[in-house]
Structure formats: structure tokens, C-alpha cells
Amino acid sequence: MLKDITFGQYYESNSLLHRTDPRAKIVLMILLIVFIFLAKNLFALLFATACVGCIALISRVPFRLYIKNMKAILPVLIFTAVINLFYGDGGRILLEVWKLRITTGGIYNSVFMALRIVLLIFMSSVLTYTTTPNDLTDAIESLLSPLKFVGLKGAVHTLAMMMTIALRFIPTLIEEAEKIMNAQKARGADLESGGLVDRVKALIPILIPLLISSVRRAYELAEAMECRCYNGGEGKTRMKQMHLSNTDFLVSAAAIIMCAGIIILNILL
Amino acid sequence: MKMENIIEIKKVSYEYTEEERIFAAVKDINLNIERGSFTVILGHNGSGKSTLAKMLNGLKRPTFGDVIIDGINTKDEEKELEIKRKVGMVFQNPDNQLIASIVEEDVAFGPENLGLSPAEIRVRVDDALKSVGMYEFRKSTPHRLSGGQKQRIAIAGIIAMQPDCLVLDEPTAMLDPKGRAEIIDTLIKLNKEKNITVILITHYMEEAEKADRVVVMNDGEIIADGLPAEIFENVSLLKSVGLDVPQTTELLYALKQKGFRVKTNVISIKETAASIAAALGSEEK
Question: Which domains occur in chain B, in start order?
């Protein structure tokens, strides 16, 4: 049961996007998402769709993995589409039941909105499939580093340290939770039957030992960090330096052309 | 050549209070550790050996007495980082010592904290990983490695800070026999090749075999101190403080008590066999 939990969905490959600086990827992804939402007409959105399609192809991540992510948000997608179906005004009336009417405008709206969400998920999937969780952490730390100048120096470092330690300990704690579950099952604990309340109650004998052991781990980890001269990140340097390369400029240029394309189509059509 | 002491423990006691009673974990200990030596501190659970270990790099400070590391008293709070840099410490559970989810980034953690240049950190990380034989795993993630491998990464993380002395508090307690052998071999190699002073704290007597010196602790006091062979001969003393005597030593001890003239100051299976064979040979004549 717990093995199904995946953190980060990095897909190993050596595509152009895998080699792109993670900071550039985060910024460009946000930029493209904003522009996808700025697309006002169908042509601009179709152009954006084509662009996102190209990005997904360049990422060399199997298409089924993107579809897998899409399945997860299918209910949201359907809900949005259905709601928007009734919100379109204008166009021919196709169906009228009581106060609800479906118009061609409504269908247009519904498709438009659904497509936007699909593109949004695609973009964020590209980021998580092509970037390791560690690189994401480093990139976030680096992108937030300007906050140092407004007196939040410690906060940025603390946040990055927390994310690093969390990533490191997730597999360890999953393993431990499994051990505890097996130990409790061996003592006759029933974790899989009963109603919701019973199941939540059954989790208590698992969560408490897990919590206690985590606190103990935290204590030992703190001592080990102290032994490695950790003093809250003051004067700390980094082994891995991130440098923007030609690849990053190329990818950035491509992303800016996409954004420009959306705006031009918005104005022209 | 005159040997210089890297660690001087002078009349050190450590007390703690629990439920309003004072307990002494370490009682008035004097001990000098020579630079470049390999010392094993043996003791049963609760003998005060872990407390003593934690006093060697200032994680704990003695209640009475002084611990001097390379001329610096651990009570000097301003030199705290320098002391921790000089005396690296490795603990029992490798899982709770690794910070990053990529091996080389974890090893880089110490040198990064020291504020070294990226190029220097790179050199030290590669060097440290090679010295523990884990260089080919540098891009791997700790949770995919065995316990022995994880513990070697933890050692590499300390080595990368280039300490003078390495203190290991039961580093093999959670490992299988293969992992234990890996760690001991790594420590011997680091001691011989890099001339790092090693202090290994353990309750496995087998691990003391290749040491230069063995110190036995019981109830917060040092009860024996000498060469491994001298210490192992004293089976009744070791047993009295609850240490597991290796099967080979135990066999020789039993044979000796039955009147066989066997050498009891050996520990490896090969030497034991030779010792028994020699005794049997002389018996027949």
C-alpha cells in the first residue's frame, strides 16, 4: 500500500529539457502558464497547445506518463467542462431544459477551459518529469535567495534545509512505517477492514511509534549535523554551482517566442 | 620518534541528573591518545563509553576535569567548530547521519559548512569517497545502499572535513557481519594510509584484534588498558564485565583450564587452529 506513494516523478533521460538549468525551467514554466491563461481566442490557445505538444515531445518522456497525470485530475476536468457548458452566452441554442440551456458558445467555453487545464497539467508535468527533486530544491533556494536582502536570509536557508532533509527521510520513514505495520499486523491489528472510523482508529498504533521514532531520529540527526560543523548555514558554500549555459538561453528564447506568439494571435484574431 | 598526544583526558567525570538523583556516567578517567594510533574502547552497554566518546569533540562537556584536543580545551566555546573539525564523529545508525539524498552531496555537507571553495570541496569529496571505496556510488541515493555502504558514506562525510582524529561510537552495531568487516577494513586503511587517529568504540571484541591498543571500560571506569593480545588473555575479567568473548578465545581459554598448553593471546581462527595444533603436537611427544 505504501509503496505506491511516489515522491517526485523524475524520468531519467538526457533530453534538452533535462539538461536545462532547473531555475530557468521553473521561471519559464510559470511564464508559459501565465501566457496560456492570457490566450483569449481559440487560435491563440491552439497555438499554445501546439507549443506545449512540442515541449512534451522534446522532453523525451513517454506520452503515457503525461496521460497518467491527466487521469489524476480527470474529475476536476469533467467538473470544469460541465459547469462551463452552461455558462456560455451567445451562439445558437442547442438544448434547453428548464432554466439550463446549452449553446454553441457554452460548448466553446467548456472546451476552452478544459484545454487550459490540460495544458497547465502538461507544463507542470514537464517540469517534474525532467527535474530531480534535489535539483528542484536547489533551484527554489537559488530563486528565493534575493529574499536575503530583505532580512530573510535565515529563512531561505532553513526552508532549503528542510526540503533537503524531508526528501532524504521520506523513503526511510516509509520503510519504517511498513515495518511498524507488519509488527502490528503480527500482533493481530486489523488495518484493512471496517468503516472509515475503524480504519482511522487502526492507524493510531502505527502513527504513534512512527512519531516517536521520528523524534529520536531528529535528535540523532541534529547531533550528526553538529559534528559536521553545521551552524545554521552561516558562511556555508556549495559544491554544486549552477551556471546558465547556451542550452538555457536557447530554451528561454524558445519560450519567449511562444509567449509572443500567443499575444500576437490574441491581437490579430 | 616521540609520539605526541592528540587527545588528553585529564581526571574527567561526567554526571547527569535523572529524577533528582545524580548519576556518574564517567568517573575520574585519565587517558591519552597518541596521534596516528588505532585505539579500541571496549565496554558493555552503560559502561560510559558513549558518554566518553561524546566528550571527545565537545558534544558533551565534562562535569569535572578537562578534555584537551590538540592543545585546545573542549570547554573553550569559541573553538567549538575547530574541535569538531579536528575530531570527526560517526554514530551507530547510518540512516540518521546522512543529510542529502545524493551520496556526493551528503559527503559535501561538512566541507560546505566549513566554507571551502566549490573546487576544493569537489576534490575532497572525490578523495573521501575513494578512500572508503564508494566512489562509484557517488550519484546513488543512500536508501538504495546496504547498511555497511551507508556507514562508509557517513565515514566519508567526516573524512572530507580532513579531521586529525576519527571517533566511531559503535559504528557496526546495526550492521550484518559483511558490513562490519567492511567498516573495520576501511578504518584500518584510513589509519594506515592517511595516518588518521582512530578511536573505535564497540562491544565486539573481534573488532579490537587489529588495534594498537585496547581500553576496557566498565561502570564509568577504565579497568584494563593494553595491547589486544594482553587484554584477550584475561578472559575472566572480560566475562565479568559482560563482554562477549570471541568463540576462538573462549575455546582456547577452556582448553587451557583443562590443562592444555595452548597460547591464549590469539584471536583469529587460523592462529587458534595453529595454537591448538602446536599444543596437541607437544602433548603427543
Answer: 5-234 (3.40.50.300), 246-285 (no CATH)
